[in-house]
């Protein structure tokens, strides 16, 4: 059986990867909108005024959150020092 924290860690990594992929796709979409606007202005034509601000904001936010979750999921945990105690009573041998 896989320990519960390993499952949460793997789930966090996969969620972070999905968010990073979604952020990349949305960023490309927003970039394409901005590029189309540039091409229309360069050719001295008019184009529908789509503003990619929300797409680029959502892309940046999801990339940031995805990267955080990936780092959180694969981050190393600190090593714990295990201390042991004995219950034996010392005996004196004379």
Please explain how this structure is put together.
It is a single chain. With 94 residues, the chain is mostly helical. It has one domain (4-74). It has helices at residues 4-42, 53-74. Helix 1 runs antiparallel to helix 2. The two termini are 53 Å apart. The mean pLDDT is 82.
Descriptive terms for the model:
mainly alpha; 0% strand; rod-shaped
SS-derived structural category: mainly alpha
Give the terminus-to-terminus CA distance.
53 Å
What's the number of extended β-strand segments?
Answer: 0
Any idea what the radius of gyration is?
Answer: 27 Å
Number of helices: 2
| Amount of beta strand | under 5%
* Bulk shape: rod-shaped
The main β sheet shows up as: none
Helix content: 55-70%
SSE layout:
Layout: H1 4-42, H2 53-74
Helix pairs in contact: 1-2
Could you give a quick summary of the protein structure above?
Helix content is 65%, strand content 0%.
